[in-house]
Amino acid sequence: MTRTARTARRLAAAAVTVGVLATAACSAPVQTNQGAASDRGGNSSMLIAADNGSPTFDRNFNPFSSGKRNTATYIYEPLVIINEMSGEETPWLATGYEQPDARTIVFHIREGVTWSDGEAFTPEDVVFTFDLLKKHPQLDLKGVWSHMESAEVDGQDVVVHLSAEDVPAAQIISQSLIVPEHLWKDVPDPVTFTNENPVGTGPYTLGEFTPNQYTLEKNQDYWQADKVAVEELVQPAANSELDIVNNGYDWAYAFMSDVEETWVKADPDHNTYWFPAGATIALIPNMTKAPYDDLDFRRGLAAALDKQAIADKAMQGYVGRASQTGLMLPSQEAILDPDIPNEGYVDQDTDAALEHFAKAGYTQQGGKLVDANGKQLTIRITTPNGWSDWLQGVEQVRGQLGELGIEVEVVQPQPAAYQQELRSGQFDLIMGTVGGTGQPFQDFNGILGAEFNRPIGETASGNFGRFSSPDADALLAELKTTTDEQRQVEIAQELQQLTYDQLPMISLFYGGSWGLFSTKSFTGWPSEDDPYASPKTWDSTPLLILTSLEPAE
Amino acid sequence: MRYVLRRLGLLVLTLWAAVTLNFVIPRLMPGSPTDAAIAKLAQNGPVTPAVQAAIEAQLGVPGGSWWNQYVDYLGNVLTLDFGVSYTFFPQQVSGLVAGALPWTLIMVGLVTVLAFVLGTLIGVGAAWRRGTWVDSLPTVGGSFLSAFPYFWTALLIVFFLGYVAGWFPTSGAYSATATPNLSWQFLGDALYHAALPAATILLTSLGGWILGMRNAMINTLGEDYVTFAEANGLRGRTVAVRYAARNAILPNLTGFGMALGGVVGGSLLVEQVFAYPGVGYLLYNAVTNQDFPLMQALFLMITVSVLVANFLVDILYGILDPRTRR
Lengths: 553, 326
Prior knowledge:
heterodimer; A: disordered N terminus; B: 13 helices
């Protein structure tokens, strides 16, 4: 009978012990997050939010691994860096390349570059990397071997032979990250290799690594070391919005609503932001289903929508409506077809919309848009659950179409299920991203290309709406094989016209890129006036930023 | 003894059913692990066809018929080999779970025990002195606190004590520059980081224990044998603890068993808010990324511990209340 009482007493004693421990801990002198931020070595160090722990970091710097640290691309470099906003190319580990014919690419490999362990970087490393990707297709994130036949060293050059006439392949192949042969040739399984002590050619090497934070130190022997002003990058695992605003970050990639009142207000003299337009967010119609296969119907939809109102709602006014050409404007202005009216922006015109719908067989009756049998038109739009910006846009679409008497049903599967429905073509109208690489062939092939067209139910990796047009295929085929740069631009413009006329997607607004910068320690960030790189913190374009920054006065 | 054996048989049967459900349910979720990985990338912009192909190849999405997968799975369960995680490729599931479990067990586990002990004791006191301030203060305060949603309390605490006052760290289980080890300094650091999440769980769960214990005990206090004990002139404390509390604790004890079993599941919302590297956070990652191997390991661990905890409570019940043995 006394057993319970004793147990209770023992438990109470345990509770007291825990309580004491907890109080003792509160007074223990330990470092907090705030401490870490102020620990930074004066002006030469930079606090970044380029990588997020989940919630802690795995030490994986294999640049080809799906679970890699984002900053592995600050350590490993490509042959050429492409600014995907404008399509502009910057020669990097290659000083340039030539395409003597449509099946051959010659990369001139840069001399005087060393790996961070002191070994020389050679054309052999480049060929080794290509062969590595061939042997392990799991690592081939750029898909270079769907274009390549072989690669060989020729003096200081690397000659790549393509499997077909394929001019745009140069841009894809040149973006491969190059790894050192002398270290990687002994890696038993490069697919599961986590590369804990990375050796690259890039401006940074791995400094101290803990699961909650790591640092990248400047590579003093970097081949353009004079351009690298930041001695140390500090990357914490936790970068909540409150952290970013409160802890004095120098560079963060994060969408912040009301950025003026949050991020800028935290340090009005230094904190700036740049939210440029990225890829087009569009409604993709299913071309195998009526009435979405009817061009008049699609024209009706496009004319019925006020895209600026949709953009304002979805993107909180930071990014505008999208051009129906599939281009990212204004960054791709240079290749925009001047004959397309209003730069391809389709204004809302409900009268025109009703005319188009009438041609497609839908007329207004008692405030409802009905078909020949008097049944109200019902549209089903699929958008992923939890992507609130897209959902806000879709709600606007629902409201605007509702005013014309169209009933809109919104379905929101979980992101994985959404992706499955998108790829297998099981939708009526679906929200999706199109374009965005800045390379006309890749972008338009992904929107229009027969190459990706699969029957409904089979998994496609592009052209999700199953659009099919012999004209588009002919243009894409020519764009793929012509080395004439003038002709390339002409074809790109014809493809814009086709996209504008045929509406393989209904462009709504541009997806934003969310760059938050502080000029407290460093200046020279990309901006609207100097858009030399996207503000994003992953892939290779951060190298353009890290080699452009200068210490603040 | 027959009572224990019967319970044991039931345990094995439920275990098999749980293990099987654990296999089936993740596979009924729409979308494949590849779809989940691509969807995650697609939030940052378009995903090229090449990336999609490479991810498919890298993850090696499960092939073969469900029956073959099921047989493999049963074998893996017995040998505790769950393979490689999709989300944290190429890490082993067992390593990930082993890394997250201690944080949850220590933080959530200790707080659960503490909340149960404190809550029950306060409940006994409140019922014994019902109608006085000893009763009304914890009863009203407890229901008030437990009425708040978990994550809301967590957000308030992290905002005011973490960001505004700056007294406590706002995320993680230890400092940015620390590496886990067994030094006193690290342990102190870890306790300091556990303070806010632990306080949140304690605050929100305490009320339930207090109310449960108080209400059950008020019922038993009206029983004849309590009146009889009091009439016999036994000391108040003896009557309260040995006569009333022992009988009133049964429902709370069941709740405690369930809560203890649930500890390994972590405290998903609290771990999310405080970016605490425990099982709850891992589970969240597994589910959102369609990570079958990781999900299976975690759900299995949770079901097994809930079942085992229930089994132990059943046995304990038999000891505390002889009537259940029949």
